Amino acid sequence: MSLKGRSLITLKSFSCAEITKILDVAGLMARAIGFDGEGRQQSFEPMDAILGTLFYEPSTRTRLSFEVAMLRLGGQVVGFADPRASSVAKGETLADTARIVGGYCDIIVIRHPLMGAAKVAADHAGVPVINAGDGPHEHPTQTLTDLFAIRRAFGRLDGLRVGLCGDLKYGRTVHSLAPTLARFGADVVCIAPDELQMPEEVLAEVERISGRRPDTAADLSAAVADLDVLYMTRIQRERFSDPADYERVRGVYVLTPDILACAPERMIVLHPLPRVDEIDPAVDSDPRAWYFRQAHGGVPVRMALISLLLGLEPSEAQRRRYGLDAPAAEGALLPPPGLDPPQPELLR
């Protein structure tokens, strides 16, 4: 199955088999570049392709990992990390920016504060577009990175119990992750105060996919007792219109060594980062703390995604050398759900 020419706006548009293919190729890339201390084994021939990066919001991990991924593949990168330094400051529309950059580049990655922005870019760019986060909507490449980390830890996704903790209302990472986990047969637990609980539409989507509504919890210490994965998130100050609302809920969940002592030894702790104060630095030395390893995995994941969307499949020699023969995941034939429409203001 070829992904050549596709855009990744939401993982809803990719089947489980296609997601599994991306993760399998990411495993190949990880071994090739020596990810996670394996020792670098492969240098890539220069790729005749250019990645355009359009970052309308601040980013460290996502932007740099995309740039490093393209450079590791032998390609080149152009773009902006501050829209004030581009023609956006002169009033250029997103659609026009996408048209222009699509004429310069072979593939585009975009982060934007408004939901639906990536789809607008994809509709006008004429080249594959990757959504690096569109407001509170989705962050599909972070979800791929999360799934990659979980598979490295457990060798599977199905049958695992995953707790999502913190800002589930505004956190776009969990809005992508929860339904995708359900598609692969994992159980989701939503740990948040009422005012930051998972949006009803996401809960309903998980229930539609899995046949059961996700469990909800308010007590982190009790919730971790039967988890395989704890996915912490920060309270996102930038999504609150009233600073008083933010101050009221910040720090409501902080993972400490004492709370981690209530969790099973098999459990791993993930976080999309950046963290603020929701994970005590004393947890970093615990072998269950996987969040930095998780972040570093974003490079091979994005290498795989860029390669596949550009139609560059691993060679048979690479497949044999790096063992690219992982079995398809359970539920691989599940059809992707429907797509969400963009916000009206993006179409003006």
Description:
This protein has 348 residues and is of the alpha/beta class. α1 crosses α12 (298-309) and α2 (61-72) packs across α12. The two termini are 36 Å apart. It has helices at 16-33, 61-72, 94-104, 117-125, 140-154, 172-183, 200-210, 220-223, 243-249, 257-260, 291-296, 298-309, 316-322; strands at 50-55, 76-80, 107-112, 129-134, 161-165, 187-191, 215-217, 229-232, 268-270. A five-stranded parallel β-sheet has the order 7-6-5-8-9. Strands 2-1-3-4 form a four-stranded parallel β-sheet, sandwiched between helices. It contains 13 helices and nine strands. The chain folds into two domains: 11-138 and 298-327, 3-Layer(aba) Sandwich (Rossmann fold); 140-295, 3-Layer(aba) Sandwich (Rossmann fold). The chain is globular, with a radius of gyration of 20 Å.
Set down the secondary structure blueprint.
Elements: H1 16-33, E1 50-55, H2 61-72, E2 76-80, H3 94-104, E3 107-112, H4 117-125, E4 129-134, H5 140-154, E5 161-165, H6 172-183, E6 187-191, H7 200-210, E7 215-217, H8 220-223, E8 229-232, H9 243-249, H10 257-260, E9 268-270, H11 291-296, H12 298-309, H13 316-322
Parallel strand pairs: 1-2, 1-3, 3-4, 5-6, 5-8, 6-7, 8-9
